[in-house]
Amino acid sequence: MLVVGLTGGIGSGKSAASEAFAKLGRPIIDADVVAREVVEPGEEALAKIAEHFGEAVLQDDGHLNRAMLRDIVFQESKHREWLEQLLHPIIRTRIMDKLESYQGQEAYAILASPLLLETDQHKLVDHIVVVDIEEALQIKRTSERDGNTPDQVERIMAAQLSRAERAAKADSLLDNNTTREALEQQVATLDKKLRSLAAEEYQA
């Protein structure tokens, strides 16, 4: 089975592209969803986080206080590095298990991940699709969606690969500088290409 990585910077429209692939019946493994699953109550990772940062990072119901943890790890890089070293291998293993469940059933599956290229998740995929967007529009859309200031968005963007670096690593680009309809049309065209590629390589 062909594994297709789908990524893009914050506010690029990765979720919209992912939804367009899903409408076409393509299975989607969302790394953000997996990242939430591995820190649910009862998961070993959550216990280690509470042990490391203190019980204050847990809400009264036992769930992770994401806002508090985010504040902690963005203030000190050593905390972010510790958290990444804990979570990234766990997330990667969970993603591999989910991909394995589709083997032999689908021509291709999508791994949607904002950190596909910043982590070793890109090693799990055969074809990289990047949702591309002009940086000014990226800032505008993210600010409107999340209520962040442009400065806050720019700081988040600075921690990610640049637009040029991301595009250079892409096998396919989706231009999301106009409308959602235009993006969906591009996804439909790319879907045909990916199914053809899967058939050639894997006789799917």
UniProtKB/TrEMBL annotation:
Keywords of this entry: ATP-binding, Coenzyme A biosynthesis, Cytoplasm, Kinase, Nucleotide-binding, Transferase
Top EC group: transferase
Signal peptide limits: none
Pathway, per record: Cofactor biosynthesis; coenzyme A biosynthesis; CoA from (R)-pantothenate: step 5/5
Record: residues binding ATP: 11-16
Pfam families in UniProt: CoaE
SUPFAM superfamilies named in the record: P-loop containing nucleoside triphosphate hydrolases
Coiled-coil ranges (or none): none
InterPro entries for this protein: Depp_CoAkinase, P-loop_NTPase
Catalytic reactions of this protein: 3'-dephospho-CoA + ATP = ADP + CoA + H(+)
Cellular compartments per GO CC: cytoplasm
GO molecular function: ATP binding; dephospho-CoA kinase activity
Entry EC no(s): 2.7.1.24
Subcellular compartments: Cytoplasm
Keyword Nucleotide-binding appears in the UniProt entry: yes
GO biological processes: coenzyme A biosynthetic process
PANTHER family named among the record's database cross-references: BIFUNCTIONAL COENZYME A SYNTHASE-RELATED, DEPHOSPHO-COA KINASE-RELATED
Role this protein plays: Catalyzes the phosphorylation of the 3'-hydroxyl group of dephosphocoenzyme A to form coenzyme A.
NCBIfam families documented for this protein: dephospho-CoA kinase
Protein family: Belongs to the CoaE family.
Name of the protein described by the UniProt record: Dephospho-CoA kinase
Name of the encoding gene: coaE
